[in-house]
C-alpha cells in the first residue's frame, strides 16, 4: 500500500448529474475505496453530491474546498464545490444542455488542473455525449474534447480494458458506411503504436497484440474484400520491423476467444462495435474506458449514464472501481518515469 504522500492526486468529476454518476461516487467514497488508491478530489456541485448520497444511502464526511488549488493541496476526502448546478432543478434520466455544459466545464477545469501540476489524473463518472454537445462541447466524443484541450492533434484515441485485455480501434465514432475509407496503412499503424505505448504505460513490459480483420473470414484471400491484403498486412509488417509484437489479421468472430484466454494483451479492431460487443458481453460491469495518448491518465466506466435506473439507488460500482484503480496505477507509472 502506498503512503498517502506517495498516492497520486486524482480528480473525480461527478459526470452527468441526471445519470448514475453522483450515486456511484457516493458509494465508492462512503466505503473508503477512493482513499485506498489515491488522494481523491471530487469535482462538482455539493448539492448534486448530496443528492447522490441520499439516493445511494451513503453518508460520509468530506472536506469542502472552494477552489481546485485548495482541494488538491489538502488531505483526506475532498470536494471541490463548483456551485454550478442546483440539484433541485434536476430531471433525472433526461438529456439536458445545462447538465452537459456543467459536466464539460468540470472536465475542462480538471484537465487545466492536470496541466498546472495540481492533479495527476482524472477518473470521471459517466457522461452523456448528447448532453455534452448540447452544452457547447461539440466534439465527436469526450476524447476529441480532451485532446483539443491539451492541444493534441494526433496520437490519441479511446481504449477499453477488461480483465487485463486492452482493445483499441482504428475508427470509432463514425458511421459504419465510412469505416473502410478511413482505414489506411498509416491509421492502422497509429492505432498499433498507440496501443503498444499505452500498454507499456500501464505496466505491460512486452505487450502481445493481435489485429482483427475488417471483412468476414478475414477477406477470404481477397475474394471478400482486399483491406486485409492491401492495408492490414503491410501495417503489421511495419509494426514488426519497429519491434512491436502483433499478429493477424484474424477474423473477429474468433479472435476474442483466444484473447480472453490470455494469448494477447491487446487487440486492434477496425471499428467501434467490433470490439465493444465482445468486451461488454464478456464483462459489462467491469469494462473501463481509457483516453489513450494524453499526458495524464483519464479513465471512466464504459457503461454510460444508465438514465433508466438513475435515482433508484441500485447502480453497481465495479466498473468505476476498476477505472479508478487503473488511473491511479497509470499515474504512479507516469510519476516513476518522470
Describe the overall structure.
Pfam families: PdxA. GO terms for molecular function: metal ion binding; NAD binding; oxidoreductase activity. This is 4-hydroxythreonine-4-phosphate dehydrogenase. Keywords: Metal-binding, NAD, Oxidoreductase. The chain is α/β, with parallel strands linked by helices. The protein has 2 domains: 1-152 and 294-338, Isopropylmalate Dehydrogenase (3-Layer(aba) Sandwich); 156-288, Isopropylmalate Dehydrogenase, CATH 3.40.718. The protein is built from 12 helices and 12 strands. Strands 3-4-2-1-5-12-11-6-7-10-8-9 form a 12-stranded mixed β-sheet, with helices on both faces. Helix 1 packs across helix 3 (46-56) and helix 8 packs across helix 9. It is elongated and about 60 Å long. The model has no long low-confidence stretch (mean pLDDT 94).
List the helices and strands and how they pair.
Blueprint: E1 9-13, H1 21-30, H2 33-37, E2 39-44, H3 46-56, E3 63-65, H4 68-73, E4 78-81, H5 97-115, E5 121-123, H6 129-134, H7 142-150, E6 157-162, E7 165-169, H8 185-201, E8 208-212, H9 227-241, E9 245-250, H10 252-263, E10 266-269, H11 272-283, E11 288-292, E12 298-301, H12 318-337
Parallel strand pairs: 1-2, 1-5, 2-4, 3-4, 5-12, 7-10, 8-9, 8-10
Antiparallel strand pairs: 6-7, 6-11, 11-12
